[in-house]
Amino acid sequence: MLNKKFLWGGASAANQIEGGFEEDGRGLSNIDLLPYGDQRLAIAQGKMHYSEAKEDAYYPSHTGVDFYHHYKEDIQLMADLNVNAFRFSISWSRIFPTGLETSPNEEGLKFYDNLIDELLKYQIEPVVTISHFDVPKGLMDAFESWKSREMIAQFEKYARTLFNRYKGRVKYWISFNEINMLLHKPFTGAGIFIDDQKENRKQVIFQAAHYEMVASALATKALREIDPDAQLGAMLAAGDYYPYSANPEDVFVAQKANQENFFFLDVQSRGEYPRWALKQFEAENLSLDITADDLQILKENTCDFISFSYYSSRTSKADTSDVDTNTGNAAGGVVNPYLKRSEWGWMIDPLGLRIVMNSIWDRYQKPLMIVENGLGAKDTLTDTDVVHDDYRIAYLNTHLEMIKESMTEDGIPLMGFIMWSILDLVSSSSGEMSKRYGLIYVDKDNLGNGSYRRIKKDSFYWFKDYITENK
């Protein structure tokens, strides 16, 4: 099916798997302040300040699934799975505990040295995200996070530190995970709290987006100077918005939603702001700090490839008064009556993956990499340590068939399929462990109780065979 360089792997995020949140000099990050429970969404959306969380709140990122202490065992399991890539993120506050330091934390750098070396020992390619929903609390305190231009220099310092340290060992970098999550959950995405009584939400979000995109472009420039054989990609939470009907009003609403979702890739891939965005900034009196130097940096340092997550498509309707809007997805929209749904209400739409691959390729003509795709479900561990997850196998199989068709029939160049996830991990959206995505079961419950044992699911063996047959 695919060439020998095709990346088969699984993905993760430091704040969802690592744990060890105060070990070896690590500082606090934004997700360390995001509790499990009924306050999580309001804080994630930047509508409630994290300091208002309940005193007895449980913070699932503090333990993750203890990858910090299990990484050698987990990489051995990856080797058993026959993958040749592992996407992980680096914890910014493990390298610069407050973000403000001039010198990095050597213990943090050593952890990732060991992790990368262990992967390479098994011929597993590291695919590294620089910031996966990750901002040191020290930078939130000093600058209110990405509300401030000061963050650009702090991010560039951090990125250059990583590129210099891991030069020659990491070929694929991603600057910001799902950068468009800023539109929906600014605290999760960028450590931003917005006081809606005093601040214009759109002003804050698009200003932060600009600073992040300039920072990403400067990181791209730095990588080309430090390690020209490596590549840096943009990353989007993808999924086309369909019109609910042929009513032109529904079509137009979907078109506008797609424009907004692709806004970030327009800038990062084409190197300039789309006209509609500039017109919207003007119409809504958004006064953004965008300099001529910024625009030149964006133009000269576009991304090398486009990576994206895909879990489901979205559907738009002009009048939502008579339809179900509970999609379970941060991207919103309405329920699509033609699709089945996951246990968390997400639309299951394999063809939507082929559609979005065509949409992205048609717009940008840059190589693509799928870096997240999977199914969150409630798995049952039997008394004999078996998990029968045929539903996950069916989900992955149907999506992989669409990938084959996208590549063979549509001619779309795809660098790799990195699924979410090899290990069960803490859900980013809900903070649950019961919303399991892994091919490997981790014995931990929603409140952190459990042995943290790793147990292969049926899907593990299926995916291993699938990779072997298609390499």
From TrEMBL:
GO cellular component, one term: cytosol
Coiled coil segments of this chain: none
Organism of derivation: Aerococcus urinaeequi
InterPro entries: GH, GH_1_N_CS, Glyco_hydro_1
GO biological process: carbohydrate catabolic process
Keywords: Glycosidase, Hydrolase
Similarity-based family: Belongs to the glycosyl hydrolase 1 family.
PANTHER family: 6-PHOSPHO-BETA-GLUCOSIDASE, GLYCOSYL HYDROLASE
PROSITE patterns named in the record: GLYCOSYL_HYDROL_F1_2
Source organism, top-level taxon: Bacteria
Protein name according to UniProt: 6-phospho-beta-glucosidase
One Pfam short name: Glyco_hydro_1
SUPFAM superfamilies linked to this entry: (Trans)glycosidases
